[in-house]
Amino acid sequence: MLFSLSVSSQKSIDEDPEIQQNNINYRIEQSQVELEKYNYYDAQKNLDEALKLAEKSDNKRSIGIIYAIKGKLQLIIEEEDNAIKSLNKAIEMQRIIDDNKNLGKSYKIFGDVYLTKKDYHQALDSYTAAKSKFEEEGLDENLAEVLLCEGKTYMHLKNYGKARDIIEQALAQAKKGDYKKTQSDALINHGIIYNKLGDYEKALTFANEGLKIAKENHFKSILSQSFLVISNIYKAIENFKLSREYLYRHLKLSDSIRTLTRINSSKDQETQYLLNEANEKNIEIVEKLEKAEDDKNLGTLISILSVALITILSLLTLSLYKNNNIRLKTNNMLHKKNGELIIAKEKAELASKTKANFLSTVTHELRTPLYAVTGLSNMLLDENPRPEQVQHLKSLKFSGDYLLTFINDILQINKIEANKVDIEPESFNLKKKINNIVLALNNSAEDNNIKIHFEYDTDLPENFIADQLKISQILINLIGNSIKFTKDGDIWIRVYKIEEKNNFYTLRFEVEDNGIGISQEKQDNMFESFSQGSIQINRKYGGTGLGLSIVKGLIDILKGKIYVKSELEKGTTFYFEIPLEYTSIEEEKENKVAYFDGDASELDLTNVKILVVEDNKINQMITKKILTKMSLKCDIVDNGEEAVEMIKANKYDIILMDIHMPGISGMEATKRVRSFDKELTIFALTAVTIEDKMHEFDEAGFTDIIPKPFKQEEFEKKLYNALASNTDRSATA
Predict the structure, then answer these.
(1) Taking the CA of residue 307 as centre, how many other CA atoms within 13 Å lie in the half-sphere pointing to its CB?
(2) What is the pLDDT of residue 642?
(3) pLDDT at residue 416 is higher than 80
(4) Other C-beta atoms within 10 Å of 208: how many?
(5) How would you classify residue 598: left for phi > 0, otherwise alpha for psi between -120 and 50, otherwise beta?
(6) Chain-wide mean pLDDT for the chain?
(7) Which residue, among 441, 431, 440, has the nearest Cα to 580 in the 3D structure?
(8) Among 96, 530, 553, 579, which one is most buried in terms of CB atoms within 10 A?
(9) Which residues, other chains included, contact 108 with Cβ-Cβ below 8 Å and sequence gap of 6+?
(10) What is the SS3 assignment for 421?
(11) Is 377:403 a contact under the CB 8 Å cutoff?
(12) Where is the Response regulatory domain (predicted)?
């Protein structure tokens, strides 16, 4: 009983996850220690044992780390192809579990492998991928190391200017974190660069500084390299005595390192280990045969079977060996290509992210001057311009509105491509929604002498749960397109059921027109961004070619499909199918604050004070002009700190707060105001993308948001509405 309890206890201890992890970590740490001592085979053995334990417990993080260290070891013993294979396994595992910290380290080792293979451009790609991960995770020491490796690669490419700049970054990072090894190595490499550039004084200064750090910290390999670098510098300045002296030191130290490496060669130790293991097995077989000598018949039979078995095994081994060699060559090629594809994917993701950030910044920067264009054109139109100026001002206003539509379309495409569009399902009346869209677009249709016909399947329910805003966007774009390309004709909008399963309906929406049609050639790429029928169509009808791309993106998000059927001069039919959930609940009534619809003259505006917080002088002038026209007084400040002090010292009814300003931002200023005044009306007057920042505006404590550029009438209604609400609150109090 005691024995069974002991066995059971031992088994439970062995299966304890914490103990298993400690065992794995211990072997990984030991492998690193042995690697530093040049005991490569002992390091390999520790890694193999750690891998068995990690695979047994399905510890993916540890498996990834182990394969990465294996790759590093295989690189040291000049097995680059095996290193690529191990690193691909590490990267595959680390990508699955989003282990970005160790993924960056694997990319860095990948770069070292390609650097050894003299594939310098692949090495740079790997180091770039590693840098991206280290920056994300804030791994400063690893970032310094990979910057140094990147600099060394540019040295191999003989681009010494670029190498100097990057190694300077690595050195700054290493000094900041006091990473001695990287600091020493970077200084030595600076010595090499300045020697190549002919600045021997700087080269000696950097190399001697690196040598000093290497000596103090016993960095043998860096010390050996520093002796060689200083020898080369002295040779370049024709001080041959010192050059020989440092070369002698280098050869002496490098010989000792080489001897140590050879003594601890992984291949030699592995061969000896396998021979010992084979001898032990042979001795064991001989002992067993000797024990069976008493029974001659049995001994003979065993001998015959043993010979037969050995023969069969030998043939199988030979066959497997040949097949394995072929498979290994193929696998090595596949692993290399796989590694290249992973790096390419990382680069593409980084490029996509950079593009998204660039577009966001550019569109914001465009919105700010656009506020001036639309604001000034509206003002000038209201100030009784000369008759010959009216048409010019209207053209300016039209251009501003067109540019704003274009910017909004780019933002929408950018969000779709970056997967930042969220689905917001709600119950709504589909038939009523389409009727409202038709009514809204009817004036444009009448301008082109078009009649719109709407057919809704009589057997189809009207109330569904879906993202009605996106469905509206799709239909407005498609119907708007039909109106644009049809003259003196008809447009038919049809909705009917394709499939019904439980409460889910697959509906088909059709938008058909008898306009100019689309050629078969143009139909193939019409859903791509900036694609239009032809240059002539673009000039005649206008537009950016983004509408159908947005439609396609939104339909994909709604898990639907879109098709087109068209013939030149006969018309076009767009039809898309999306799933919608039926609901018996009627459309929720909107509970939004309505615009002020009373008489502004009834409001007492004599004592109303508004503070405008805006750093752009033109925008200050426009906003002040609009407020003056509304009979409202305002103060203007151009930074957040002054705004907070002004609000503390004065009583304001409304604050119009810009977001991007010198000093503290509008967000921070509003947070500070909310610490002492919870009721004050604060509008965010901003050109940033509202949808992306909505939660930040709420958290900061803004009452509402007015996006720039705004329509003057909407701006006025929001302000009057806020003033009316303030008046009601005062009366109640």
Answers:
(1) 5
(2) 93
(3) no
(4) 16
(5) beta
(6) 80
(7) 431
(8) 553
(9) 126, 127, 130, 142, 145, 146, 149
(10) coil
(11) no
(12) 609-723
Q: Which two tokens stand for residue 142?
A: 């690893």
Instruction: List, for residues 328-367, the tens digit of each pLDDT value.
Output: 777 677 777 777 777 777 777 777 667 666 766 676 667 6
Angstrom distance (rounded) from CA 251 to CA 227? 9
Stretch among 319-333, 522-536, 585-599 having the lowest mean pLDDT: 585-599
Cβ-proximal residues to 365 (8 Å cutoff; 6+ apart), any chain: none
Q: Note every long-range contact of 296-299, with CB atoms under 8 Å and residues 24 or more positions apart, other chains counting.
A: none
Q: Write the single-letter amino acid at 640.
A: G
pLDDT category at 593 given cuts 50, 70, 90 is very low
Contact 575, 508 (CB under 8 A): yes
Cβ atoms within 10 Å, residue 403? 17
Structure tokens belonging to residue 68: 């990465």
Cα separation, 540 vs 484, whole angstroms: 10
Question: Which range in 134-148, 327-341, 360-374, 536-550 is most confidently predicted, on average pLDDT?
Answer: 134-148
Phi, psi of 455 (to 5 degrees): -120, 120
Which residues, in sequence order, are CB contacts of 188 under 8 Å at separation 6+? 206, 207, 210, 211, 214, 222, 225, 226, 229
Q: What is the pLDDT of residue 689?
A: 56
Q: What is the DSSP letter of 570?
A: T
Give the global pTM: 0.46
Which is nearest to 656 in space by CA: 678, 681, 633? 681
* Distance separating alpha carbons of residues 199 and 206, to the nearest angstrom: 11
Q: Is the pLDDT of residue 36 over 90?
A: no
Tokens for 666, please give them. Answer: 């509008």
pLDDT by residue (tens digit) across 51-62? 888 888 888 888
